[in-house]
Amino acid sequence: MARRVHDYDEDDVRVRPGRRGSRPRTRRRPAHEGASPGLVTAVDRGRYRCLVDPGTGDERGVIAMRARELGRKGVVVGDRVALVGDVSGAPDTLARIVRVEPRTSSLRRTADDTDPFERIIVANADQLVIVTALASPEPRPRLIDRQLVAAYDAGMDPLLCLTKADLAAPDALVAEYAPLGVPYVVTRRGGGLDELRAHLSGRASVLVGHSGVGKSTLVNSLVPDAERTVSHVNVVTGRGRHTSSSAIALELPGADGWIIDTPGVRSFGLAHVDPENVINAFEDLAEGAAERCPPHCDHFQDDCGLNGWVAEGHASRARLDSLRRLLGARDSDTVE
Q1: Domain limits at 50?
Q2: Which pLDDT score is estimated for 21?
């Protein structure tokens, strides 16, 4: 007689080999209350160099990996993290990053203006130092404009650092950016760096600039143990060679500050930038934009409210021209 469907015996049961216990899965994750605080200072092929207990006087460097529970969340230089595992810093030990603390700022860029995927370069910095040579190679104002836009978008204070003043005078470039009110320092070969060091003291500063502008030379002078490779400018193309292959955070000796050196870049995509973040950096114009501009105003159109705002003397024409130049840089497809 045929066996009924609900009559089972041991031949009907299949056991999956290697299957773990029947305890149901849970979305709860360990809280790791005892995790050690750390600062990510470098990233290299899936390994993270971290400083454990920064600012306590008992700092030590460790190598860590991302814990699986972080999922797709990225970890970048400047991130404040929580570490578990072996955080002794002894050779051949490995800790785990189990948590990335909320970021106060994120410096981002895209590969180009059509790339929908933004990349966070550095986290938790409060100053962007735009390093530009006055000669050899020549300044590239459109690239400077783009980097200023990235700083305003990230909520960071910009600082222009004009190098190689022994080769060319800074006056023309200083005048070009004077309406923006961006502070600047000028350096020359063999000159002192006291003014620059004063701007860096007590802050977390990111140094950006295209290859050959002298960024690595500055880093080596500010942090003698950094040993960043210095590039030479090609006399034919006027461009430098990439020498810094990844971002690295370095403690500024005797100044209670950090500098973060980044790889030299020849492009700075801004596809991710919200124009309102740029406008909000211009306090004298942001109020006029909010009160006078029509909805979805791109600030280039004839009925832009900022035209009347400036005509009434609330802000200068030079400031409006500079704002529009930065907004135009966001939509430009070249930085040359």
Answers
A1: 36-100
A2: 55
DSSP H or E segment with residue 119? strand 119-123
Find out whether 187 and 221 touch, Cβ atoms under 8 Å.
Answer: no
| Residue 284 burial class via C-beta count within 10 angstroms: exposed 0-12, middle 13-18, buried 19 and up | middle
* Averaged pLDDT of the chain: 84
Whether 138 and 196 share a structural domain: yes
Count other C-beta atoms under 10 Å from residue 237's C-beta. Answer: 9
Give the count of beta carbons closer than 10 Å to the beta carbon of residue 229: 11
Query: How many CB atoms sit inside 10 A of residue 111's CB?
Result: 13
Which residues, in sequence order, are CB contacts of 44 under 8 Å at separation 6+?
246
- Domain count within the chain: 3
User: What CATH number has the domain bearing residue 244?
Assistant: 3.40.50.300
The whole-model pTM stands at 0.80
Q: CB under 8 Å to 292, separation ≥6 — which residues?
A: 305, 306, 308, 309
Q: Which residues pair with 128 in a beta bridge?
A: 158, 206
Note the pLDDT of residue 240: 42
Closest-CA residue to 219 (of 254, 256, 262, 184): 262
